[in-house]
Design brief:
Blueprint: H1 7-23, E1 27-33, H2 52-74, E2 80-86, H3 89-100, E3 105-108, H4 123-130, E4 135-138, E5 151-155, H5 160-172, E6 180-187, H6 200-226, E7 231-237, H7 240-251, E8 255-259, H8 274-281, E9 286-289
Parallel strand pairs: 1-2, 3-4, 5-6, 5-8, 6-7, 8-9
Antiparallel strand pairs: 4-9
Length: 298
């Protein structure tokens, strides 16, 4: 998991520990040191300026803080390692996840900046776009709510990314009698059916879309139930992001797992998309799952 030592990063640590405990994995806490390129004008000329010595001092201070966090977890009997490097956080975390074949990256929605619109231009957004493994995004409001994952809501548009989210949910669900996966398909009318006011065909469109979704959801449910998983499903008309958040709240799920791109195929999935709105408004952590990509050339 990545940390910038902010309160939200502390929440991410709790969830990373719980996830590792449940999956029999270890925790690696990562911090990327970003040294300021220049000294602000108000700093006195005699102050320590950026340079090799300054960079080393910053690195040592960050390493001490990182080890302090790790020591507090080891004192609780948690297997944890640390990793620190100089560079862009999203790139370093992503590359490290690839090197270690990480099960997942856990990251907070906003760190020391405190921005309310959590993912626009942030480390979390870039990780969800580029990371080689699923990314679990937690909110400040998730503090103290970490727990074994027994219930997962998976929104599906029947795309390959949605299928990957289902597989991820299967791996994450605890082997417990109450473990349950809920499939959700949300649909609404295309703009062509609404821009000119009500038209008769809109009713038939909704009926046909809903019936087709129900059929496909039942087929998925039958397949997953045959694999030994407790599954239910729901198809609802409405704005997908609103429906997803409402169903997650109504069912009090532990986690939402969703594909990152869906049928639109957009690579920058969070800019104004359903995924961004779900992450911003969901009352539980959200795990984004994307298609694997070829490694960058060395």
């Amino acid at each position: 998991m990545g940390t910038d030592f902010s309160p939200t990063a502390a929440v991410a640590v709790d969830w990373a520990v719980e996830l590792a405990r449940q999956q029999g994995a270890r925790v690696e806490i990562i911090h990327a040191v970003t040294v300021p390129p220049s000294v602000p004008e108000y700093v006195s000329p005699g102050a320590l300026a950026p340079g090799p010595f300054f960079d080393e001092e910053v690195r040592r201070a960050a390493l001490a803080r990182l080890e302090q966090e790790a020591a507090s977890l080891r004192a609780k009997g948690i297997e944890v390692e640390t990793w620190l490097s100089l560079g862009t956080p999203s790139m370093l975390i992503s590359d490290r996840a690839a090197e270690t074949s990480a099960l997942a990256i856990v990251i907070g929605t906003r760190g020391l900046t405190g921005l309310r619109h959590v993912l626009l231009g942030s480390t979390a957004e870039r990780l969800v776009q580029k990371a080689p493994c699923p990314v679990l995004v937690v909110h400040p409001e998730d503090l103290g709510r970490h727990r074994a994952i027994h219930t997962i809501l998976v929104p599906t548009d029947f795309s390959e990314d949605a299928e990957r989210a289902i597989h991820t949910a299967q791996r994450l669900l605890a082997p417990a009698p109450d473990a349950r996966l809920t499939l959700l398909h949300a649909f609404n009318l295309p703009i062509e059916y609404t821009a000119y006011g009500p038209i008769p065909t809109s009713v038939h469109y909704l009926q046909d879309t809903g019936l087709d979704a129900e059929r496909r959801l039942q087929e998925l449910t039958d397949r997953l139930t045959g694999e030994g998983l407790a599954v239910d499903w729901v198809a609802r008309e409405g704005d997908p992001s609103v429906v997803i958040v409402e169903e997650a709240e109504r069912r009090q799920v532990d986690l939402i797992a969703m594909g990152s791109h869906g049928r639109s195929g957009l690579r920058h999935l969070l800019l104004g998309s359903t995924a961004e709105r779900v992450v911003q408004h969901a009352g539980c952590p959200v795990m984004a799952v994307r298609a694997p990509t070829s490694p960058r050339p060395s």
